[in-house]
Structures are given as C-alpha cells and as structure tokens.
Amino acid sequence: MLFIFIILPPRFNNLQYTSISLQLYLNKKEILYIVVHVKKYFLSICLNPVIQKTIVLDSLTEGEVLRTKEYYTHASGKGVNVSRILYQLGEEVVHFTHAGGRNRKYFLDLACSNGLKVGWVNSFSEIRTCYTILNREKHTTTEIVEEAKPVKSTTKKRVFSRVKELLKFSHTVIISGSKAEGYSSHLFPEIVREAKKVRQRVILDIRGDDLVSSLKYKPDIIKPNLKEFIATFFMEKALPVGEGQDIPKNLYGMVLEKMEELYIEYGIITILTMGSRGVLYYTGRKTEKLPAEPVTPVNTIGCGDAFTAGLASALSKGKSLDEAVKTGQECASKNAQQLAPGTIEPI
C-alpha cells in the first residue's frame, strides 16, 4: 500500500479555502485525485497599518503634566479594526497590509495575539504610531495621528501580486482607509477591477481620488462617512460639516441626489455613517435613515470600521440590506463602549 503525505505551502496554513484539486502521478499513471473543500474568507485590505496607543485620563487639562497608569497598545488601522471585528463575529478573515521597519514584528505579534491571520509584504517603511486620549470626565475621544512614512517604490507591485493570489480564495473584499505615500494612485482601482473580474463582493471604505477612480469598476457598496463623502464629491462644500452638525438643506439634497446617481450609473449602494446622527443609505429604490442608538461612549475609535464589519458579515449570511445596516449599527454601538479600538468585546 502506498501512503502519500501532502504538505500545503505556508501561505495555505490556517486559512480556509474553497476547493483545492490535487492530482498525483507515478510513472505517468494517475494514482490519486483529491479535492479538498474548504470555506472561503473575507479579504480585508488596508495599506496604512498603525500601532495604536490608548491613554486613559480622568480629566484633561492643557499646559499641565498629566500622569496615568492606564494605557494600552494595540494593532490598529481601519483594516485591522474591520478584520478584528469580523473575527469576533466568528467570520473567517484574512487581513492584508504592508509592514516594515523596527516595529514590524511588534505590529504583527499584536495582530496575531487578537487571533488575526495577516498577509503582508515588506514596505521597508516604519509603521506609524497613533495616540488616542480618552477623557473620562467628559467622555471624549481625542486622536493624534502620525502620517505614514512613504513605502519603497517596489511595494506596489508586490502588493498587487499577493492580492491577486489571495483573491483566488476570498468571497468578499473590503478596502479600508487611505494608503501610505509611495503607492500608485491606480492601486485601489486595479484591486477593485481584479476582484470584480472574479465576481467578489467589494465594499469600499475609502475617499477622495481612490474612491472616484474605483467607481468605474462597479464596487458593490461604498461606505465613507458623510464628511468624507461631501469632501469627495462636493469639495467646495466640505468645510462646514463636522461631527454633530446638521448639514444645510441644499447640501443634504445634493447628497441624496448623488447617492441615487451612483446607483443609476454604476449600480453602487452608498452607505454614509454619520456618527451620533446615525446612518444614511440608498437601497436602490429610496433613501433610508437609521438613527444611532444613544450610548455613553468609552472610545469611539473604530466605530465606522465596526459598522463595516457588521454590515459585511450580515450580507455574507444572506441578510437584506436593511438588516445588514442594522447589524452594522449595532456593532458600531458596541465598539463605542469598549476601551480598545476596533472591538465589540474586551481584548
């Protein structure tokens, strides 16, 4: 009796795939045919990784020395937040990013400690650190963001090659956030094009030129927040709109018209998160608004990412758009009540 042991390449380990067919030959005669049926995964892409420092203060006074014993470090960035919450929802997810510099191993270890499976290429650039300051007295979240260092010029080619490989076994692609300097402006649109070629659901939480240039490849859903949407499509109207502010009626009307226009022209569903004001979305027939559930926030970093994860998870289970938006909103609410960024349960 002949026993044959098959060891899959490292990139297959710990990932769930769809169907892998293996044919083995001995002396030009087929001796074995194996089909391995395994589950597909979410592919969550973000090309701006973060090491997030969260600092908790009882109160915040400018111009003073402030001391605290309560501070935490997590892997973050919009894509990590999305991936972590998908994992907490019980989904199979692969996070893809770049990583480089002295903190590369630290970042990857932090991500893996949360159960994440991370694919990455070396960008030869330092991973940035961002700082969240939580003021318990006023229940406010303040974030200090380091801009990312440019990636090496060859990184784009390696990113695109790896993404094409990962697309073979994913069912949904989620692209979140801005990309670090050094990448081509064509990268995100090219990824959307490749994903749609293989009939993947594509959800974009991006803005600006990256979003506009991707529209022609017909992503299924775009989910910027309201301020980003206005800044992307109505640049001259961007400044007056902030968190907690009502937008002027004429601008609100323009937003609704644009959401409908994007559906008519590209078949794209637009979902706009609005923080404490809830969610605005176009169903393909009409515009709906879902109010936010009132909560006392602990840390609001990652609420939009929690929404994206909840939405994507629900849609993958065959839920309606209305049900998926509600699930996303529930995840955002849970995220706001956690200390760590991009979580719906303690980590």
Describe this entry's structure for a reader.
This protein has helices at 78-88, 104-113, 155-166, 187-197, 208-214, 226-233, 249-266, 303-316, 321-336; strands spanning 19-26, 29-37, 41-45, 50-57, 71-76, 93-99, 117-122, 128-135, 140-144, 170-176, 201-205, 221-222, 269-273, 279-282, 287-290. The protein is built from 9 helices and 15 strands. It starts with 18 loop residues before the first strand and ends in an 11-residue tail after the last helix. It has a 9-stranded mixed beta sheet, with helices on both faces. The protein has a 4-stranded mixed beta sheet with strand order 5-4-8-9. The longest helix has 18 residues, at 249-266. By secondary structure, the protein is α/β, with parallel strands linked by helices.
Radius of gyration based on Cα positions: 21 Å
Question: From the structure provided, what is the oligomeric state, counting identical versus distinct chains?
Answer: single chain
**CA-to-CA gap between the ends?**
50 Å
Which homologous superfamily in CATH is the superfamily? Answer: Ribokinase
The parts where pLDDT drops under 50 for at least 5 residues are: 1-27
| Sequence of secondary-structure elements | EEEEEHEHEEEHEHEHEHHEEEHH
How many beta-strand segments?
15
Sheet-strand content, in percent, reads 25-35%
Helix content: 25-40%
* CATH-derived topology: UDP-N-acetylmuramoyl-L-alanine:D-glutamate ligase
- Largest beta sheet: what is the strand line-up? 7-6-3-10-11-12-13-14-15
What's the CATH first level?
A: Alpha Beta
Q: Major sheet, described briefly?
A: 9 strands, mixed
Q: Compute the average pLDDT.
A: 90
